[in-house]
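Quick note —
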Amino acid sequence: MRNYLKASACNGRRPKGAGARPRLMRSMISERDVPRVLIAPTGFGKTTLAVEYADEIFGFRSTHWIDARDTLFIRDLDAQTVLPTLLEYGEEGSLVVFDDVPYRAESFSEVVDGLIEAGWEVVVVTEPSFESVLDRHAGCVVVDSTDFLLDDGELASVAAERAVDLKPGAAGSFEPV
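Predicted structure written out below.
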């Protein structure tokens, strides 16, 4: 346990294992002219992946980060002012991340389509209960909960970073040896 606590010190650096998901980043950059939808339960790393993408590709420049749970966003979405306002404040090649999108299929879909047509990049972060956002965007890149699971290479990397050996535990989980 002491090694684990010692290894948890950030020492002025990004936490080990935070972000740095090259396999998922490849999915994010594979098709930048279609919406990218990150869909998984809470805690799977959807927002972390969106942050990594916005940082590595855009350096957070020309980036709009929208908390889609905010009542002001819902109000503006219902009033159909989101698309024209974003187009006014941004430019072709900008990125918009809609974080925690609730169900509002038709009006939200129009915003996504309008932004893509204007040459923007769109990342949508949502939970499986709102996956109907995909109904209108069949050509989008989807990163879902199975994609967020660590593959063998990523698991080995995490174990090496933490300097512990991992062994299979109950119900497919892994525990320190």
